[in-house]
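Our consortium's second objective concerns turning raw sequence data into structural hypotheses that experimental partners can test. To show how far this objective has progressed, the report includes one record in full. It was chosen at random from the queue rather than selected for favorable results. The single chain below, 183 residues long, was entered without modification.
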Amino acid sequence: MKHINVQKVILNTVAVAGLIGVAVLAPNALQVVKQFTPKKKKWTRETYYMNDSIENLLEKGLIEKVRKGNTEFIKLTKKGGELSARYELGDLEIEKPKKWDKKWRVIIFDISENKKSLRDLLRLNLNRLGFVKLQNSVWVFPYECEELIFLLKTKFFIDSDVLYMEVNRIENEKWLKEVFGLN
């Protein structure tokens, strides 16, 4: 259990269960609490660790308990959803084709100051994925990535704040070709 990020597993499990619950209109799909509590009175070190992780997530405001009748559910808070998205996006990569199609993918965004943390998170992810910054809110990449940008926009709830473009030429692009190792 030491090598597993239990909080990441819990957040992603609740995120998936929540999506499934909404998709099939099955509110019991969110009943995650019972999955993490033992059926017998035998408590293992892992059970204590799991319960401590759940309590920690509750204290941090990443998940919350919701009661429906006699049943208790766990659901993600907005803050928990953002962290879950960070975990999920951390595993993403853009597939690079063998031959460049000679098109640039330009991402432009105008994210307000009250969403500064999301703006910084977007920049962090663009940088991690290999985009090059032309200006603070203008980033470029040479390979197809529209689906990934759509995912970023959706996960961070910034769909109307981000614009994806494919362009044939960028003024003074020679340096960009060198950065990306293109001919």
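The partners drew two points from this record. The helical segments are 6-23, 45-60, 78-89, 116-129, 146-155, 174-180. The chain has two domains: 6-88, 95-180. Both points have been shared with the crystallography group to help prioritize constructs.
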